[in-house]
Amino acid sequence: MPTRENSSLPHRLLSKLGCTRREFMTAAGGVWLGTLVVHQNGPLSAIEPIKRTGKPQVRVSLAGYSLREHFQGKRQPAITLEDFADLAASWGFDAIEPTAYYFKDTTPNFLARLKARCTRLGLDISGGAVGNNFCVADPQALKKQIADVKAWIERYSLLGAKTIRIFAGSVPKGDTEENARRRCVEAIHECCDHAARYGVYLALENHGGITSTPHQMLALIQAINHDYFGVNLDTGNFHGENPYAELLQIAPYAIVCQVKTEIFRTQNGKRLPPEPADFKKILNILRSVNYRGYIVLEYEAAEEPMKAIPRYLQELRAAIQELAMG
């Protein structure tokens, strides 16, 4: 399994990310420096970044959510998970990430057939995704959330998935973030213990709520500190003045990276219109932490996905080749 090591701040990246050292240090209130996170309200200790041997290397997967409206029948053609695998192979992806929402059958027989289909197509199943909320305050509701994640750990392990991306959730009305974080940490620990039995990693996504900023993410990361836990680095979900600088703060803990085709910035408290994601900047961030693993294209923009996805895959492949990342 990946191990952890100290890492120094990659200063050479700052100019490529379009920010000064001072801007980087203040992005979202914190910055990682080895095993210490410096924050405007004081230091916050963090687990050591993941250590990887060998040169940086990436393989490209496709998230099922990219074709959500086709799965739901809102766009034609309507598709199944088998169709999804066929499309991904025809477009040239290395793997797929089938999302839990689109499984109409979760029996072992169906999972075996889907895995076999991907094998025949030359596709890996890079990981999976579960819709969960570990911030819920009601004990019985939280137990149900935990049980659901455990069940999907077992299902995805039958598919050969390497990682499962999970969510934290949002603070319930009338509660505090401290209480919500505590429940979330305990739930993730319990689920990571279960995942360890199957050799699957749980990857916490930066996805709003109590994971909206790098500092909030790092507060969770340092509290969980489990061998089968890491981060799903979602490149479209930090919305500060320099999202790339924010992504760099949690990149050392990434065990999977989810690439969006757009980013959103906030300037003077106002959300700006989306802008095209800079794949080279994203790949440079991954290269700076010696990332080895999957990058999962998750398409959410307005253009018809059947047309847009193959084009963005080619753009991503070109950037990977230019930066010699495998």
Keywords for this entry:
9-stranded parallel sheet; 326 residues; 39% helix; TIM Barrel; 11 helices; globular; alpha/beta; 18 strands; 3-stranded antiparallel sheet
Query: Quick one: CATH superfamily?
Result: Divalent-metal-dependent TIM barrel enzymes
Second rung of CATH, namely the architecture: Alpha-Beta Barrel
**Which structural class is indicated by helix and strand composition?**
alpha/beta
Give the averaged pLDDT, no decimals: 90
Helix segment tally: 11
Fraction of helical residues: 25-40%
Strand order of the largest sheet: 8-7-6-18-13-12-11-10-9
Number of domains: 1
Topology:
Blueprint: E1 3-4, H1 13-16, H2 21-26, E2 30-33, E3 36-39, E4 42-45, E5 50-51, E6 57-63, H3 68-71, H4 81-91, E7 95-97, H5 108-121, E8 124-125, E9 127-129, H6 139-159, E10 163-166, H7 177-196, E11 201-205, H8 214-224, E12 229-234, H9 243-250, E13 254-259, E14 262-263, E15 266-267, E16 270-271, E17 275-276, H10 279-288, E18 292-297, H11 305-322
Parallel strand pairs: 6-7, 6-18, 7-8, 9-10, 10-11, 11-12, 12-13, 13-18
Antiparallel strand pairs: 1-5, 2-3, 3-4, 14-17, 15-16
Give me a quick take on this structure.
With 326 residues, the protein is α/β, with parallel strands linked by helices.
